[in-house]
Design brief:
homodimer; alpha/beta; Rossmann fold; five-stranded parallel sheet; 15 helices; 41% helix; 14% strand; Putative D-mandelate dehydrogenase (chains A, B); hydroxypyruvate reductase [NAD(P)H] activity (chains A, B); D-isomer_DH_NAD-bd (chains A, B); D-isomer_DH_CS1 (chains A, B)
Chain lengths: 347, 347
């Protein structure tokens, strides 16, 4: 066979927005696209064993809602990949369902899509930061009730315990792509004083550019900020527990746009009931799609249905970024600089 | 009488936050505070005729919810003011209830509190801009329903018609204190491209600082922007009517944080029902405290109970600004520069 182009294993539905770039990719690579049935775990494993897709060099999964039919990428799957395979570019902002350690040992670079989703997720954080300071849920309920007395109650009284985020202190747990975007937006919109805690400290020039201050100890940060935002990857155990909630400054607030499992909701309900926390805003919940019924009736709690990443712009950016990550990995295209500006890489 | 200090007629409840500045004011001026009963229109007019409060030089009204018992400041009231009276400093971001023309003819400078409320009102605009692009009301309702199927429906489908405000075009009608704050926040948070229409064009350097582009014709602006924000003072007739809605770009959005009377809601309902507009966010409603029942059940409409200005920080800033405006008017204090930075004057 004369064709020496690398082979890409394409998982999921066909590209639907950036078809121009896909046409380019089709010229640069040989793209093999398993059917939905072939992507089911048993069949997928069988096909890998049979080397049905030859010695492919990369895996491309440009959408969040298709291409994951084979389930968890653990040793059982990863060890069946061809030796030649060196890149896996996937939509989604996290690394869920991927054993990164095994992936790395196998010599495969995993590119996630965090950069594509950070704008939308950052906006969701801003959307929740406003109500936790402003009693917005009370104001919304007053209007939606179409009861003039409830409207008047909200109009008159919601303000009496409401504050401007402006000038207050924000604490971000996890300053990755999403956390950094939240910092930039919260400063640009409210001029908040921003602290962060992370297992890895940013470089000094990055901290200066983002106008953020590092807190080595999580507890130290919780004690001084007016609002905590959780923006971490999936963690093995909740980071917001009865013990950590106790360290929050009295009357402060919690926003979670990361993962429902990061917050012990029973403990959160308790902290809200005693008034130790004054409000919470949660895009994600612990037992999705089930919402804690006590949280749902609290007027100082704003809830959304895990839609932080969910925009058409994110979808477009996911597919573009996934394709460009593969191109950059193999071809290091000359437009790499402009790509980095648009979607900063995870490195 | 030896005391040659100017007299201030103080309308409303006692200062409750910035008592230190008030103590200063009490040394610099003689402050007379009519009782609530004396502030009722008939009694107030009688007292003015009797010159009960001597030849006062200024009127101070530091709160929105007290001090306006006498009703509209029209010719009937203004003509009774002492010749010596040259300043009226009031809370509230608008000039409602004040005949500014008559005030000016009488040689009285009217200072409103827009600078004190613009931060909170700007945040309310940001709070409504996110949902009109993002289908946030759908996401909220899914979670609040505590019905896992409605949650899943929102989680999966809200994204499919949702966009990031980032990079989209925003059109602001009225670029006063509040409009300018919205521009600054929308650029800082979303990097939106911002256009504005106003009866008065800003200076070139102001436009550059705010990164806004002037549209001489309102219709011209409506045709090109993805979201229109109304931030005008009270107008004699609605600015958003069936005729203007028709000029909106198809699928664009409306946010109103100014005055309910600025929008013809029946026409808005029509534009939403036909899909000509894709969403609306309204902090103010046409027939407050009554909410249009059709708007209340639309999933692409976000409503709040006219709480845009409503925060404790606004209250604090209202009273501080009202007092400082009086001080600056009479004393031109040396800390005027720092005051201007904190609360830019309306001039």
């Amino acid at each position: 066979m004369d064709d020496d182009r690398d082979i890409i294993l394409y998982l999921g539905d066909p590209i639907c927005y950036n078809t121009e770039l896909y046409a380019k990719l089709e010229k640069e690579f040989i793209i093999l696209r398993p059917s939905k049935k072939e992507r089911e775990r048993d069949e997928f494993i069988k096909a890998l064993k049979e080397k049905r897709w030859c010695e492919f060099s990369a895996i491309l999964r440009p959408f969040c809602d298709s291409g994951w039919e084979m389930g968890k990428w653990n040793t059982a799957l990863i060890h069946l990949l061809p030796d030649r395979c060196s890149a896996f570019a996937s939509a989604g902002s996290g690394n869920e369902g991927i054993d990164l350690k095994v992936m790395k040992m196998q010599g495969i670079e995993y590119y996630n899509g965090a950069a594509a989703a950070s704008e939308a997720t950052g906006d969701m954080a801003i959307f929740h930061i406003i109500p936790v300071f402003r009693n917005m849920q009370w104001s919304i309920e007053g209007a939606l009730s179409i009861d003039p007395n409830r409207w008047k109650d909200a109009h008159r009284n919601a303000a009496r315990t409401a504050y401007n985020p402006s000038g207050k202190a924000l604490g971000i747990i996890g300053l990755g792509q999403v956390g950094s975007t939240i910092a930039r937006k919260a400063f640009g919109c409210f001029g908040m004083k921003i602290y962060y805690h992370d297992i890895k400290r940013k470089r000094k020039n990055e901290e200066e550019a983002l106008k953020v201050e590092f807190c080595e100890r999580l507890e130290g940060m919780l004690e001084i900020v007016d609002c905590v935002v959780v923006a971490t990857p999936v963690l093995p155990t909740p980071i917001i527990t009865k013990a950590t909630l106790w360290r929050f400054k009295k009357g402060s607030r919690l926003v979670n746009i990361a993962h429902g499992s990061s917050v012990d909701e029973e403990a959160l309900v308790g902290a809200l009931e005693t008034g130790h926390l004054s409000a919470a805003g949660l895009d994600v919940q612990e037992k999705e799609p089930y919402v804690h019924p006590k949280l749902a009736v609290m007027r100082n709690v704003t809830l959304t249905s895990h839609t932080a990443e969910g925009t058409i712009d994110t979808e477009i950016a996911f597919e573009t970024l996934a394709m460009e990550n593969i191109r950059q990995h193999f071809l290091a295209p000359s437009d790499f600089q402009s790509l980095c500006q648009k979607y900063p890489m995870r490195h």
